[in-house]
Amino acid sequence: MVARQVAVCGPRDCKDIDAERAEEVGRLLAEAGVTVLCGGGRGVMAAVASGATAAGGVVVGIRPDTDREAICDGLSVVIWTGMGEARNSIIIESADAVIVIGGSPGTLSELALANRRGGIPVVQLGGWEVLEDGKPVDLGAVATTAAEAVAAALAGNAATNIDLAELQFQRYDAAGARAHRDLVEDIFRRSYSAEIAAEVAFEDPDAFMARFDAYTSGDNAAGFDLIIATHDGKAVGQTWGWPLGPTTRWWEGLQLDNAAAGDHDAFVAENWRRTFALSEIMVDTAYARRGIGRSLHNELLVNRTEPRGTLLVDPNNSGPYAAYRSWGWRKVGTLTPHWPNSPTFDVLIRSLST
């Protein structure tokens, strides 16, 4: 069986912090038994090769030229392409996952090629932010440490490539959701495995399912909408929400940003027809970074008749946050839900009008 191959891309003229991160990424990948692909030059490339080799790993350098003197130390195999920057495509197409460290024009091209290819985890560790109409573009998971970057790169199953056209969606009301409670919990456990292993109190499975039971009963039950996505007969993700009524607790503790949304009382007034609350989107980690989350998001919201939607996002969860912003959501405030051990969330709003 061929070992997993993870491409680590970054500038040859890099910052010290990028080199330090790259060396640590190389070490962690080698310890995981992964073959490291890189450009074989200086900077981030040399650092990742050094880290991986020191840990007994295999490093393949894919060079843009044929200069035998231009390679870095620590390479196990060198491929001299003589193709110039076109070799970036070879690096990306050969990878089961891509980690981008730092920023430069060449690095940006590799990031773009990885996203254009699709079907593999793409992780950014530092580097440039790409904006569209002033909003960050979702170009991959965003990590803040080498360990986070490697964990995100290895979380997906490299053999699990998804044709989004083959996704199937099953829709359930509150009663149907309760009938599929075991499946809901199973998807949650596969989507939040890292948080569960880390014993994050808010993501404890019993606590999560207690919230689910509350969501599917009482006032919420009247409009509760659950969608489960399946691929090749396997449930790979889910999302749900409901319209907010006059007695909703959704807005309890809301602190609006300065002049972000006008009068507080007017902002939180609900009548079942004004606001749809998107409560959860989650995807099995083995299928992450394949566009399933976006597909679930669109499927849930496409036919909503409410003029606005709302969701809560942990501001420290930078990857999903960037995705939501790129999908048209904007921050209007913060709140801490009444649930035990709840973090403080940013409150996002988006127009649902077509």
Describe this protein with a few key phrases.
alpha/beta, eight-stranded mixed sheet, seven-stranded parallel sheet, elongated
Report on the architecture of this protein:
It is a single chain. α11 (292-301) links the parallel β14 (275-283) and β15 (308-313). The chain is an alpha/beta fold and 354 residues long. The N and C termini lie far apart (49 Å). The protein is 32% helix and 24% strand. The protein has helices at 16-31, 44-54, 87-93, 105-117, 146-155, 174-179, 181-191, 193-197, 205-215, 264-268, 292-301, 318-326, and strands at 5-9, 35-38, 59-63, 77-80, 97-101, 122-125, 131-132, 135-136, 141-143, 168-172, 225-231, 234-243, 255-256, 275-283, 308-313, 330-335, 345-351. It has an eight-stranded mixed β-sheet with strand order 10-11-12-14-15-17-16-13, sandwiched between helices. Strands 4-3-2-1-5-6-9 form a seven-stranded parallel β-sheet, with helices on both faces. It has a two-stranded antiparallel ribbon with strand order 7-8. α1 runs parallel beside α2 and α1 packs across α5.
